[in-house]
Structures are given as C-alpha cells and as structure tokens.
Amino acid sequence: MNLCNLGHSFNYELEKLCRIFLPFEKINILECETPDEIYAVCALNEDKNEATATLNIGEKSFGCKRVIAKSDEKSLELALASCLFNCFVKATGYTPPWGLLTGVRPVKLYSKLTKQLGTEETEKYFREKLFVNEEKISLCRETLMPEEEIIANNRPDSFSLYISIPFCPSRCSYCSFVSHSVEKAGRLIEDYVKLLCREISITGRIAKENNLRLETIYIGGGTPTALEAYHLTEIMTAVSRSFDLSNVREYTVEAGRPDVTTREKLVAIKKGGATRISINPQTMNDIVLEAIGRKHTAKQMVEVFKMAREIGFDNINTDLIAGLPTDTVESFKASVEEILKLDPESVTVHSLSVKKASNLSISGTLPEVKEWDAATQMVRFAKNRLSQNGIKPYYMYRQSKTVGNLENVGYAKEGYEGLYNVYIMDETHTILACGASGVTKLREPNGDFIERIFNFKYPYEYISRFNEMISRKEQIGEFYDKYSATNK
C-alpha cells in the first residue's frame, strides 16, 4: 500500500493507523500521489484549516474531511488520523474496538487523562475523539483501580528482577518470542545456566551498591521448566545468594508447558522460594493443541495443576489465547469452563498475534472480519464468566497485529493480582533483567525518564559475548549516580 502524506510529517503515526487494518501490508510512505491498487492520501492544508483523507481501493474511493479547530501538533495529527480512520471504516465496514488507539498501554493513557480532566471528560475524549467503544472504555475503568492500588505501594528505590529462560520443548506455531527448542539448542543449556548465574550474581551486587529494594521476581521464557530440576535449583539458589529477598512480595516462575513440568521440577521451584507459578495450556481442546504444535493434552494440564496444588502452590495462574487456529467460539467457551473448574487464582486471556497476511479485497471487505468477530466473542465471554467467578481484570496491554485488534488482559481474585505484570506494563519502577533477550529498564527514582540496557538476543550470542554484555551493566551505577544527584 502507498501512503501519500501532503503538507505534514505525521508519517509514523499514520502508518501505525494503517496497520490496524492492514497489519502485514508493506506501507510505502510517499510525498505525492501514485497509482496503486490500494493507496491513501492524507493532506493537511493549514491555510484552509482543513484535514482530508482519501482511500482508494481498486476502482472505489472513500473520502473524509475535517475542520481543524486548533493548530497544535496533537490536534493536527488527530484530525488527519480521524479522517484516515473514517475512510478505512467506510471501506471495510469494520470499526476497531480501540478506535484510533495503537499504543501498548491504553490504561496508562486513561489514567493520565483522568488525572488531568476527570473521568467523565476522559471517557468523552476516548469515545468522541479516539473512537474507542464503550466496552473497552469500561475495561480501562475496571482495570485502573487495582492497578493504582498496586502502583501506590511502589517506592523510589523499588525494582523487580526478570530472568529469561529462552528454551522451550518445542516451538508453538503462534509464538513470536525469542525461544529455542531444547532439541536444537540443548547443547547450549549448561553454559547458558552457568553464565546466567554469574550475571545474576553481578546484578545482585549492582543492586546492593545502588541501595535498591527488590519487590518482585519473575522467571519467564521460553519455558523455564524445559530445564532440568537441578538447573532450576542452581538459578534460584543464585538469586537467593545474590539478592536481599526480605522485601520480596511476589516470586513467579512460569511452569508453562505441562509436557515438561514434572513433580521434581515443581518441588525444586517451591523449595527455591517461588510463591506464584503459571501453568499455561492456552486451550483445553486437544485438537487445537495439536494444531498449534503443543506436545501435551488438556488432561496432562489438569494433572500438573493438581500436582502443583498437592505440592503446596496456592497462587496459580493459567493462560488462554483467543483466536487460535481451528478454535471456535464454542470450543473456547468450553476451555474457559474447564479452567474455572480448576479454580486458579488468576487467568490471563491473550488475543492471538496474527501471523498471516491481511489484505483489503477489491470489494472493500476484510477477509478476516469473520474470525475477528469470533475472537471478540471469545474475549467478551471470558471476561463475563471470569468476573462472575470473582476473577476480575487488573492489568492490560496490547500488541500489534492481534486478531481483531484486541488486547491481553490479566484477571485475578482479589489479593492475587500479579504485581510484576503491573510493574512491567506501567513502567512503574526499574526492572533489572538477566538472560538472553532481557531488557533492563532503569526508571528515574522520582521522575518518569526510562533508560534501557539490552542483553544479547540469542543464547549463542549471550554465551559468546557475555563479558561485552556484562560491561553494559555498569551503566546501572552511572544512571543512579546521575539521577540521585539530580534528585537531591
């Protein structure tokens, strides 16, 4: 698709908007009109106080015009975006539930505006200017309260620790994370764990030198239980030796895949100090599990869940994904009901991140609208049934290219909200990350500035360039030296 921008430079913003409707289409940004099967022209004429957009699909053309009330950049961008959005809605007959919003953290925007404008004006702005529907506005409102209660306990010296285990027993067909199957990358595991423990030790020293207070720990992946029990013990022992755990309020380990989560591994995780685990079937339908490349059955998931209860885990999260290949609305509903029978403390409902291309047809319809509608029904059902059982939304985030342009929501019983999930999504405090693909996010103690330090992405890079990567961690001390002085 060609996107022609005339009289303005809002290229990035308008390209992101196009991707709501065309998530995999290549978007070419041009400064003039060019014939193409699908192309859009977004023009700004400040002399006439006018923003216009035209969307051409084959022989069909859809147009929109807006009078510009204000001349500041945000108003100009919003006027152009609303014009282009209106054209896409006319062309496709589809109105995305989140309207113009393309950001990862809609609740963060909702919270910010609420503090400035109040709830009524914020929701009016979401509804009338951003075209967010009532269902999603309500979700923001519901999610904000528990988020704010969790964030209120944050301190300027607070931080969380994230540990990455980038290995899985096999790769799921929908997965977009950096992870490697044990079959292909198993030879790297011993060296990886050894160096990871070294990085944990170094990170602990740096945290102590900067007087940081550890609040939550999250060991994720990949699939941490793809490792052997003794590997998990080594890693968790390194954590307890390297950090002061006296203020830790939550310690999560993803026990993810039932096919590799054994009693021995669960016992190791429990003895290592974890207070919360996540067992993630994604679906309770064996046909769907096979379609996405999972090597376990729904029955195995139930067995592992019950085993975890026997061992003493009283805070278990499960994950479901709406919109998986071969899944149906009725099948998804059955999965929700099966999960409810297990009575977990929390459930995270993800929307599938779409992998296939999506193109507007000449007739002006979206081929995926039918399945987008199905995914919408799935997440709506999950929210209603979970809420009826006292499992309510407490955090939310969005990804690009999700089916139906939907969202991922964490639901929990009161008092069992995943603290780390809120901290990482809201960027409430510093996150120190260890392991391949980990991203350390340093937050200014009494401000909003965030600086990022990236670990190498792949395990082989992490191993071969370990010393180079560790040298970057010295930036943590420099950051706190700078901002402690600034804040005095």
Beta-strand residue fraction: 15-25%
* Shape descriptor: globular
Q: Residue share in helices?
A: 40-55%
Q: Detail the poorly predicted runs.
A: 356-367
- CATH architecture annotation of the largest domain: Alpha-Beta Horseshoe
| CATH fold node name of the largest domain | pyruvate-formate lyase- activating enzyme
CATH homologous superfamily of the largest domain - what is it?
Answer: tm_1862 like domain
Summed up, the helix count is 17
Look at the structure and give the mean pLDDT.
Answer: 89
Class per helix and strand makeup: alpha/beta
Largest β sheet strand count, sense and barrel closure: 9 strands, mixed
What are the key terms here?
17 helices, 9-stranded mixed sheet, 488 residues, pyruvate-formate lyase- activating enzyme, Double Stranded RNA Binding Domain, alpha/beta
Secondary structure elements and pairings:
Elements: E1 2-6, H1 11-21, E2 28-30, E3 38-45, E4 50-57, E5 60-67, H2 73-92, H3 106-117, H4 119-128, H5 134-151, E6 158-165, E7 167-168, E8 180-181, H6 182-185, H7 189-209, E9 213-221, H8 229-242, E10 250-256, H9 263-271, E11 276-282, H10 286-291, H11 298-311, E12 316-322, H12 329-342, E13 346-351, H13 369-388, E14 392-397, E15 408-412, H14 419-426, E16 430-434, E17 439-443, E18 450-454, H15 459-464, H16 466-472, H17 474-486
